[in-house]
Design goal:
Layout (H helix, E strand, L loop, with lengths): L6 H21 L3 E5 L4 E7 L8 E7 L11 E5 L5 H17 L6 H20 L3 H8 L40 E2 L3 E3 L2 E9 L3 H11 L3 H4 L3 E10 L4 E7 L6 H11 L5 E8 L8 H16 L7 H10 L9
Antiparallel strand pairs: 1-2, 2-3, 3-4, 5-7, 6-7, 7-10, 8-9, 8-10
Helix pairs in contact: 2-3, 3-4, 7-8
């Protein structure tokens, strides 16, 4: 039995060999074999072959069961690629893989990255130098200011901006609980929960979370909140993807299904370089549901649903 060759692995290996040969033929010197035995490769990608203004190096490891069952493991090296721009590109590659599960994906990835470089280069030409720096390196700060978080990546819907008036400046930051992490293929997810009754408290919680350097460094900080307005018998609610397309809406939908109120949930994701596909949404919602259960927001009675978390004193988890 030990001599039988797994037909799936054999098929994957043949598909990899053919794909690598094709990429080498298409991209010539731009394509580089780092370690053929370990299936490690890289390719230099630029916005323009004749006059490159932006370049990036895509490093790739092909797992034994790629392309049939696993995506490539990859890393993009580019000094200028930071913050939201990096998250946006990672999301586009992940979505592209989901659309072509089981197929050879590297050529599509390379051209998607090149398309991204062209777009960034064209946008940079239409702004002055300072705006270009801000766009392509949003998280770059002076050494003296390295602890200052960038709140632009975790903002509230501007429709609610009028609700953050100065008269509420004396409000205290609501308590924040940190839930247990979920790790899958090098990506780590962690939920944070806070009771909120005003939109200003939502903003205060976000700012407080971003004072934590670990949370501020997360690839995505997805959030949703629901506040029950007694006088109007309606909900004030909103959400934010923070670069993880559609994640905020899914998180808010979870809060609606569980019928929770006066609460805000933030899920931080630290991307590990391996695509998760739709599993990322499962982990985000599982994180959120776990902490809502732990903090008593999913009690069956209506009164407990509204106020149980305020009277309960659960054990919180600390973010390390």
């Amino acid at each position: 039995m030990a001599d039988i060759i797994n037909p799936v692995n054999e098929g994957d290996l043949q598909a990899q060999i053919e794909e690598v040969e094709a990429l080498s033929s298409i991209y010539g010197d731009e394509w580089c074999v780092i370690d053929e035995a370990s299936r490690i490769f890289c390719i230099k990608i630029s916005n323009d072959l004749e006059e490159p203004k932006l370049t990036a190096c895509l490093q790739i490891i092909l797992p034994p069961d790629y392309p049939s069952a696993s995506p490539p493991i990859y890393q993009i090296n580019a000094a200028w690629l930071r913050g939201l721009e990096r998250a946006k590109l990672a999301n586009s590659l992940e979505d592209l893989y989901v659309e072509h599960v089981g197929e050879s994906i590297l050529y599509l990835w390379v051209e998607k990255i090149r398309e991204f470089l062209v777009d960034v280069s064209q946008r940079s030409e239409s702004v002055d130098q300072q705006e270009k720096v801000n766009m392509t390196a949003e998280e770059d700060v002076d050494d003296d200011d390295e602890d200052v978080p960038d709140f632009r990546t975790l903002k509230l819907n501007t429709d609610n901006a009028h609700l953050f008036s100065d008269h509420a400046n004396d409000e205290e930051v609501p308590p924040i609980k940190h839930g247990n992490t979920i790790t899958d293929r090098r990506s780590t997810f962690q939920p944070h929960l806070s009771p909120v009754v005003t939109p200003r408290q939502v903003k205060m919680v976000l700012e407080k979370l971003y004072e934590n350097k670990k949370i501020a460094s997360a690839t995505h900080n997805i959030y949703a909140y629901r506040i029950y307005c007694e006088d109007k018998h309606s909900f004030l609610q909103d959400c934010e993807d923070d670069g993880e397309t559609a994640a905020g809406g899914r998180l808010l939908h979870l809060l609606q299904i569980l019928d929770v109120r006066d609460v805000m949930v933030v899920v931080s994701r630290w991307y590990g370089g391996i695509l998760l596909g739709p599993d990322r949404f499962k982990h985000i919602n599982n994180c959120a549901r776990n902490i809502l259960v732990e903090e008593g927001y999913t009690a069956s009675s209506d009164d407990a649903s509204k106020s149980g978390a305020k009277t309960k004193k659960p054990k919180g988890k600390k973010t390390k």
